[in-house]
Amino acid sequence: MLGGCAEDPADPTTGGTGIGGELTVFAAASLTESFTRIGRDFEAAHQGVKVTFSFAGSSALATQINQGAPADVFASAAPAPMATVTEAGNGDGEPVTFVRNQLVIAVPEGNPDRVTGLSDLTRPGAKVALCAEQVPCGAAARMVLDAAGVALTPVTLEQDVKAALSKVRLGEVDAALVYRTDARAAAADVDGVEFPESAEAINGYPILVLKEARNTTTARAFVEYVRSDTGQAVLTEAGFQAP
Q1: Centroid of chain to Cα 103
Q2: pLDDT tens across 143-174, in order?
Q3: What is the model's pTM?
Q4: For FRET with 133, which of 104, 115, 145, 230 sits at 20 to 30 Å CA-CA?
Q5: Closest by alpha carbon to 104, among 171, 38, 35, 30?
């Protein structure tokens, strides 16, 4: 049993708040570390709550939601995937932006190739990974490359930012364009090189309770927790910017 029990305000396990039961959150891959921690904190703050996450590229998650995948909350890495969900009538209310994020150049720890900017990625023989343009990190990469006037041919196009970052960590490429937060989370293996053109494509992350949520009360409480000072502190520590 999911929503019915959790939303009963008389249920003593919810402390009369109606917050309890299981919660399924679909979230952008770049939120993996932060939301995992926030989920643990949310569970600790609300006895009986169990939060389960599905992390992947935002576009893939939006497609799954529109195809009927069971979920209570969706957190996207950009407005476009969220729009496909709301335009399909699968949102409950309006999405709200809760953080922003921008790209860095991820290189192996110590930056052995001395990469300092986007133009260095076009050196002969340089192997670079990008996200596919259909996902937010890929769309942002295309925008910054265009803004810089840099013609770059990647050796691989990945379906989410963690996959692009993995190529660097495994030594399969020399660099990748990833979010600042992902580079920071992998600081033991990679360095994140800042570059000014990244300011041309700062992604806003929207979050939304879904229309078919099975646990609406807890879903709304989770969204508010993410937006609270406590949730925002976790996200800021990870490198996200204020909404």
Answers
A1: 13
A2: 999 999 999 999 999 999 999 999 999 999 99
A3: 0.87
A4: 115
A5: 30
